[in-house]
């Protein structure tokens, strides 16, 4: 493994998590979430280095972890102690920033010791990037856990080109300014040459903050800071659509999709939800709307079956524990009232699944229900569309997911509005097949042209264009 790289990805997580098996031996499991889904195919193409945390705790006082190869990727693990996991990851990243950036759906908490660890861990990531990046390398920093890294890295390595992409929403000034360390975060991000967001609204929120907080003079897609131009733009992220097409055509996956429908009792319609078990995803109201339609006698559980996959996530954070209890109570109540032996009304799975099984579920489902209260993009919605090769199937999609700006032919819904959700379910359950196909084909055409490689290329091209204007080299 070469010690320097001209393309470096810096993200809180590596694409794989270290897991200790029952016999005490270690193995690797794919990390959860959309960031890994999107960035992994790009890394394979660029043959770069990936700096991130392996998802487990390193004892206090242990030295740095050695780099390793996994499935053809060069990985540089960052060690986090139990205390850093509690304060930097579960604390500041996931109890301060995550809820705040998602409309403060649950209240954000701020603690000075969490912030101190956030700064220290960001510095560790920046030091590692400075060490690994070759002269003039392109270093691409990702997501809310690492917002201070661009500035820290620029101080260490002014020669490298720094891109930053936020995978989650970016809130308006009115919410962002709650953060006691708001200036440091904005200054941290401005260390990059290019700051990318999922939507134009998020980019505009950030530009406005540079004016409100730092008294800078932002232009439409850039801002001047310390004699440098920082570009600020939206780059809606996507998926490796071709990889999904390959899986959809696999005879094993097709057979598995048929088996799933058979096991469900061959219902007329199968509805599907696939999410991390997160309070931003709107799983509660999605299920309540389904329950009320059963209560009202508008649907029956023989006719319409729901499958909800809820991937375990951030399980030591209190709000996530409470959410799990709430969702499992709701599923239990619905099944207690409407299920029969061997045929629950809601089939609930709380574990990570292999990609093949997810694709079989996408293939089997007539209706995909994606109803987050707020979501940067939502790749599940795009994955479903990518899997519907024959143009069948329907997507119910929240207006508050970034994906709704692109998948305009979906059945858009306000996830807070239970009556609206119920009406939308009924509309889709009774929709005309020709209308469904027209919508799905339009979304598929869009996705074919806007896959994850297109996303990465637009980002890199934007960096190159800026660099050429400044008379420096290219990011390729
Ligand atoms: P988020 O990034 O908030 O988790 P996204 O919808 O953007 O939401 O991305 C979720 C990713 O995780 C998708 O690529 C999806 O296929 C994957 N995923 C979701 N649930 C599971 C599961 N149970 N097992 C494996 N992968 C999953
Ligand atoms: C979202 C975030 C990612 C995060 C993922 C899984 O996709 O944008 O940064 O990695 O969720 O969450 P976790 O806390 O398990 O890394």
From TrEMBL:
Biological-process GO terms, alphabetical: trehalose biosynthetic process
MF terms in GO: alpha,alpha-trehalose-phosphate synthase (UDP-forming) activity; trehalose-phosphatase activity
InterPro entries to which the protein is assigned, alphabetical: Glyco_trans_20 (IPR001830)
Assigned protein family: Belongs to the glycosyltransferase 20 family.
Protein name: Trehalose-6-phosphate synthase
One Gene Ontology cellular component annotation held by this UniProt entry: cytosol
CDD domains, per the entry: GT20_TPS
Top-level taxon of origin: Bacteria
């Amino acid at each position: 493994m070469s010690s320097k790289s001209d393309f470096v990805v810096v993200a809180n997580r590596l694409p794989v998590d270290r897991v200790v098996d029952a016999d005490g031996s270690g193995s690797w499991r794919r990390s959860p979430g959309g960031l890994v889904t999107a960035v992994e195919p790009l890394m394979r193409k660029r043959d770069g280095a990936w700096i991130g945390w392996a998802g487990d705790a390193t004892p206090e006082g242990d030295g740095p972890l050695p780099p390793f190869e996994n499935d053809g990727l060069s990985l540089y693990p960052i060690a986090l102690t139990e205390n850093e996991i509690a304060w930097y990851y579960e604390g500041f990243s996931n109890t301060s920033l995550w809820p705040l950036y998602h409309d403060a759906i649950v209240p954000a908490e701020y603690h000075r010791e969490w912030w101190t660890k956030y700064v220290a861990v960001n510095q560790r990531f920046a030091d590692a990037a400075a060490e690994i990046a070759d002269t003039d390398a392109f270093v691409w920093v990702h997501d809310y856990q690492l917002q201070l890294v661009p500035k820290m890295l620029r101080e260490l390595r002014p020669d490298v080109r720094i891109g930053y992409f936020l995978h989650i929403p970016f809130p308006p000034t009115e919410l962002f300014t709650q953060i006691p360390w708001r200036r440091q975060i904005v200054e941290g991000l401005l260390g990059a040459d290019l700051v990318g967001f999922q939507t134009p609204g998020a980019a505009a929120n950030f530009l406005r903050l540079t004016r409100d907080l730092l008294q800078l003079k932002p232009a439409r897609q850039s801002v001047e800071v310390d004699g440098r131009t920082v570009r600020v733009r939206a780059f809606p992220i996507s998926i490796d659509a071709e990889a999904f097409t390959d899986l959809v055509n696999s005879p094993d996956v097709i057979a598995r999709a048929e088996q799933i429908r058979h096991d469900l009792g061959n219902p007329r319609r199968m509805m599907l939800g696939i999410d991390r078990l997160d309070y931003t995803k709107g799983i509660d109201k999605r299920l309540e709307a389904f329950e009320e339609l059963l209560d009202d006698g508008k649907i029956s559980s023989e006719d319409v079956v729901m499958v909800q996959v809820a991937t375990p996530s951030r399980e030591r954070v209190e709000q996530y524990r409470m959410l799990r209890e709430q969702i499992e109570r709701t599923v239990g109540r619905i099944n207690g009232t409407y299920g029969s032996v061997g045929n629950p009304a809601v089939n609930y799975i709380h574990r990570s699944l292999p990609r093949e099984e997810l694709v079989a579920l996408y293939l089997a489902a007539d209706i995909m229900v994606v109803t987050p209260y707020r979501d940067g993009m939502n790749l599940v919605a795009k994955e479903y569309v990518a899997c519907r090769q024959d143009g069948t199937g329907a997507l119910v999609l929240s207006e508050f997911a970034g994906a709704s700006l692109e998948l305009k032919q979906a059945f858009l819904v306000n996830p807070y509005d239970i009556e609206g959700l119920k009406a939308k379910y009924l509309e889709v359950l009774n929709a005309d097949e020709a209308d469904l196909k027209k919508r799905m084909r339009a979304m598929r055409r869009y996705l074919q042209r806007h896959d994850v490689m297109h996303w990465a290329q637009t980002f890199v091209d934007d960096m190159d264009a800026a660099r050429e204007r400044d008379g420096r080299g290219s990011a390729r």
